[in-house]
From TrEMBL:
<keyword id="KW-1133">Transmembrane helix</keyword>
<feature type="binding site">
    <location>
        <begin position="277"/>
        <end position="284"/>
    </location>
    <ligand>
        <name>ATP</name>
    </ligand>
</feature>
<keyword id="KW-0472">Membrane</keyword>
<protein>
    <submittedName>
        <fullName>Membrane protein</fullName>
    </submittedName>
</protein>
<dbReference type="InterPro" id="IPR002543">
    <property type="entry name" value="FtsK_dom"/>
</dbReference>
<feature type="transmembrane region" description="Helical">
    <location>
        <begin position="67"/>
        <end position="99"/>
    </location>
</feature>
<keyword id="KW-0812">Transmembrane</keyword>
<keyword id="KW-0547">Nucleotide-binding</keyword>
<keyword id="KW-0067">ATP-binding</keyword>
<dbReference type="InterPro" id="IPR027417">
    <property type="entry name" value="P-loop_NTPase"/>
</dbReference>
<dbReference type="GO" id="GO:0005524">
    <property type="term" value="F:ATP binding"/>
</dbReference>
<feature type="domain" description="FtsK">
    <location>
        <begin position="257"/>
        <end position="441"/>
    </location>
</feature>
<dbReference type="GO" id="GO:0003677">
    <property type="term" value="F:DNA binding"/>
</dbReference>
Length: 555
């Protein structure tokens, strides 16, 4: 059977069809450009009509009559006014043009030349880490295409990467900390130094998301935070790190900022805190901030090893039992704290055995704040006294049950001087100031998911509460109000938070001392008032006789 030939228009008219389609496309584009204003106005009129129908449908039936009367009145006034219809038509066309405009300017189809060069450079830098010779279809190869490896990216106003999604092969050892650290260090160097990056590893999907973090606010002054009893605000962090915000006051305005809240008390999982940092990093500021918050519901004993008078503003205040800066006074105060912890344990145990609630005198929290205790340890050894840290074993071990909280602040060069009890029982950790990733991982127990910045403001660092995640942290500004370098705003903020004085300032002696009531009472009659020091003053030189008058341990 002979094969019939194809029609001529199908056999040799492909070029004419292509030319016709191109002419039709060109004509359509030209018509669209010419008729673009009309198309915009028509689209706007359609949207206005749709909005009017929705508004009419949403209006209750009992209100449609007054609404219709109002519209009729407006139309009548416009019709009778000079040039009213013309002005109404112009206003309608303007509203239609505004409603019919494009929702937004179209984003460029891809990165520009400089951005493409930056992405390609980053792709080439990752090739040695994300490729092997045995891979038959490598995702990363020298001279390869970066579009498949970087499916999503964003740039900031300076042309640097602000967000990047990276795909990597499944055989990359993303479960090893060293391998991840190498990639994070490389991305930090290639994407631009001087910024902090957050890395989110999706091991299941073999994806890494790199996000540039904004700076944490440094203008947060000390103030009353909206917290429950037993909650202490250590500082503030990123919105993605926590699921809670606090309303804060900035002069006349208010903002909601996500905090890092440390929970203490009987049901706390991490009742004690260790703060580490370089000189000037803000460790003393954090301890001062904790003291001001603790005085709202509890009593405070402060031991200052630096001897610089950073806590002089708390001298003689209600709830401040002692502020010591010498070895003798520190030993006497911590011995009393040990006896008080034991007394609380005995009283709570006796109440439970008898079926009664815990006495009120042991429910009030007791805070032991030690700033640079290793310095006092050296002084105590020179004077032949015991190390004050040796007296912290009982409060650290039994502090949760006795409602006693210990906060220790130390500098990096004094970490070797911390006792084993302090290291073991302070699992809530804060590191302030510049630190290497290895040092952060050693102190916090886990590396942060962000790159540490080289230059950080005072009070800037990282916090980790037990086995939780590592948070960026900015401590609220709580300077010494007696320091001449303190601004008037911060000075007034701290002074407003200080409790009232327990004794008049003019009644204080020139050389304050510590007097402890020496009372011998049976264990059943021991109360908080019987063992609390009657007069406690700071920066005192405590004699041997006064230290020997401390209340003995309850037997």
């Amino acid at each position: 059977m002979a094969r019939r030939p194809l029609p001529r228009i199908l056999s040799n008219g492909s070029a004419q069809l292509a030319r016709s389609r191109e002419l039709a496309r060109t004509a359509a584009d030209s018509a669209t450009d010419v008729l673009h204003p009309l198309i915009t106005i028509t689209r706007g009129l359609r949207r206005l009509a749709a909005a009017g129908r929705r508004r009419w449908a949403d209006t209750p039936k009992d209100r449609r009559g007054p609404l219709l009367f109002l519209l009729s009145s407006v139309i009548l006034v416009v019709a009778l006014a000079p040039y009213g219809p013309l002005l109404a038509a112009v206003a309608l066309m303007a509203a239609a043009a505004w409603m019919g405009r494009d929702p937004g300017a179209k984003r460029p189809a891809g990165p520009d030349e400089s951005q493409t060069k930056r992405l390609r450079s980053l792709y080439e830098a990752l090739v040695p880490y994300f490729s092997t010779a045995e891979d038959p279809a490598p995702l990363y190869a020298h001279g390869g295409e970066w579009e498949e490896a970087f499916p999503a990216y964003d740039f900031d106003g300076t042309g640097r990467i602000s967000r990047l999604l990276i795909r990597y092969p499944a055989y990359f050892t993303d479960g090893e900390a060293e391998s991840r650290a190498r990639i994070e260090q490389l991305l930090h160097a290639k994407s631009g130094r001087g910024r902090e990056y957050h890395f989110t590893w999706d091991e299941e999907g073999n994806e890494l998301t790199v996000t540039v973090l904004g700076p944490l606010p440094t203008d947060i002054a000390a103030q009353r935070f909206v917290t429950a009893p037993g909650e202490t605000v250590l500082g503030f962090t990123d919105p993605t790190g926590v699921q809670r915000t606090l309303p804060l006051t900035y002069g006349e305005e208010q903002r909601d900022v996500p905090p890092v809240v440390w929970r203490t008390g009987v049901r706390s999982t991490e009742p004690h805190l260790l703060v580490v940092g370089e000189p000037g990093s803000g460790t003393t500021t954090l301890v001062r901030s904790i003291a001001l918050q603790a005085l709202q519901h509890g009593d405070v004993v402060i031991v200052e090893g630096g001897g610089t008078g950073e806590y002089a503003c708390l001298t003689g205040r209600d709830g401040v039992l002692a502020v010591e800066c010498g070895p003798a006074g520190a030993v006497a105060s911590l011995e009393w704290a040990t006896h008080e912890t034991e007394r609380r344990l005995i009283a709570a145990n006796r109440a439970r055995q008898e079926g009664y609630p815990a006495p009120e005198d042991i429910k009030r929290p007791l805070w032991l704040l030690l700033d640079r205790p290793s310095a006092l340890g050296h002084l105590a050894a020179a004077e032949g006294r015991k190390d004050p840290q040796s007296l912290l074993q009982v409060p650290l071990r039994h502090g949760r049950a006795a409602n006693v909280t210990v906060v220790v602040a130390e500098q990096f060069d004094g970490l070797d001087g911390l006792s084993e009890a302090v290291r073991q029982h302070t699992r809530a950790r804060v590191v302030l100031g510049p630190a290497t990733p290895d040092r952060l991982a050693e102190i916090l127990g886990a590396p942060p998911h962000t790159t540490p910045a080289k230059d950080v403001p005072p009070g800037r660092g990282y916090a980790r509460l037990g086995g939780g995640p590592v948070h960026r942290l900015q401590v609220p500004a709580t300077p010494d109000p007696y320091d001449d370098a303190t601004s008037e705003t911060h000075r007034r903020a701290v002074l407003d938070l200080l409790p009232g004085r327990s004794t008049p300032a003019d009644a204080a002696e020139p050389v304050p001392t510590v007097t402890v009531a020496a009372k011998t009472v049976p264990a059943e009659a021991v109360t908080a008032e019987a063992v609390v020091p009657e007069t406690v003053a700071t920066k005192a030189v405590v004699t041997e006789a006064v230290a020997a008058e401390a209340v003995p341990a309850e037997g």
